[in-house]
């Protein structure tokens, strides 16, 4: 039987931070990752992280405080939801995320920015260079260097208890072998969200959400389920982010394939500080157009949605999200005329944006996402380019809706040439339901007291914290992970070898 002081479940941002946090506090650590490689949703993210008082802010003369950040986070939450925040956890994040960003920097992560994002009163959004894989690259390298024992293709499937105390994890390996990894001090659940678990989405969100394709197909809520089996509960289980997005490129852009080692990212970050805005923009577009979503304003302005047969199927302004996933292969194309193409070619009408980072116009898609950009002098020409039935497309452009019971939202498109962007699909980015935790990231049980020996971080341990705005999810993942690892390592407990461990219900 394998044994460690601290066992971490999950090798994304929060898990790697937890493992390093625990190891640097003197614990020996085993990190279990169910996939063959580390990364999780963290490696699929844009990579922005919001913080105050960082070295980057100071270099630009920005005076900012965790207190101001704490206050501004509430402005974001109020903008999007009326439900209450978990103020103690928000305090933990705002107070500790400055150290997190500086810590990531010391490990080799380079940032561009910080950039503005109202209602933040100060520029706080730090964007990782060249992309979010850099977090995993540097954290994994450091974790291995300091002696974290990383085991991939090892799925934690149940928590092992000794009385009330969590003493380890039951693990299934790729070859089918099942073993127990004992934890002398604590287990940290850092296993991400449940956006890829239809049953949990059905139970906690809705029937419709259960069918939505996740960005990360391995986010199956294992940590939440293992903790539920011990009496934990999920807070804000219905909260999630879903929307229509462009499908990812078959091959990542050259910028996102750059090695994230410091010899390259350091000069890049210095160059970006002094480069002209047009060069900075070109650099950002290279990877942003791979992750951006179309603005709803396109539909407000008159663009239509057609399925792969060329049929219009929805009231684009009000039901697009609902209907796209019901189309053949779950895909659709955004179609518009010459007048709209002109409109969405310059400020203030952009196709998509990462607020404060950059704005992408039609020409950026033509340049950076040729796979998504389609143009025809005539409707027939566009239909040919898209492999669609020209008669269906002509009807759609003329304002006819093929689906029964759907009223045409607007009249026909105007004169050509005609354009299409797509395919688009409905995706669920992430769910926000994490188990309830206290400020020491201990998982709370039935009586609202901590379950001894059990910690949670990142999405698994979101605990009702509202993370609206950009860069707060990653901020929470790294910060809560780092702290959970340290707290777990600081537990002083004697192990009773007399008692047979009890395996809780399997995830
Ligand atoms: C497209 C996209 C863009 C985003 N951009 C941003 C952004 O710019 N800024 C921001 O703040 N947030 C962003 N987010 C959100 C952010 O990426 C996540 O909230 C964050 O990465 C969660 O980190 P985590 O460590 O909790 O989970 P993950 O990174 O998903 O890590 C969990 C790990 O646990 C492993 N695991 C799961 N179950 C088990 C098991 N049973 N046994 C062993 N291992 C297991 C998983 O395989 C995974 O590797 C974005 C999300 C998406 C989808």
In a nutshell, what does this entry contain?
The chain is an alpha+beta fold and 507 residues long. Helix content is 34%, strand content 23%.
In words, what does this structure look like?
By secondary structure, this protein is an alpha+beta fold. It is built from 18 helices and 22 strands. The strands form five sheets. Strands 1, 2, 6, 7, 8, 9, 20, 21 and 22 form a nine-stranded mixed β-sheet that branches. Strands 10, 12, 13, 14, 17 and 18 form a six-stranded mixed β-sheet that branches. A three-stranded antiparallel β-sheet has the order 3-5-4, sandwiched between helices. β20 (442-444) and β21 form a beta hairpin. The protein is globular, with a radius of gyration of 24 Å. Residues 9-15, 32-35, 39-42, 44-49, 155-156, 190-192, 215-216, 218-219, 222, 291, 429-430, 458-460, 470-475, 477 line the site of flavin-adenine dinucleotide.
CATH architecture of the largest domain: 3-Layer(bba) Sandwich
DSSP helical segment count? 18
Major β-sheet annotation: 9 strands, mixed
Oligomeric organization of the protein chains: single chain
Query: Structural class per helix/strand content?
Result: alpha+beta
Bound molecules: flavin-adenine dinucleotide
As a percent range, the share of helical residues equals 25-40%
User: Rough shape?
Assistant: globular
Classified by CATH, the class of the largest domain is: Alpha Beta
Low-confidence stretches: 496-501
At the fold tier of CATH, the topology name of the largest domain is: FAD/NAD(P)-binding domain
User: For the residues shown, what is the average pLDDT?
Assistant: 90
The overall strand count is: 22
Cα distance, first to last residue? 21 Å
Strand content: 15-25%
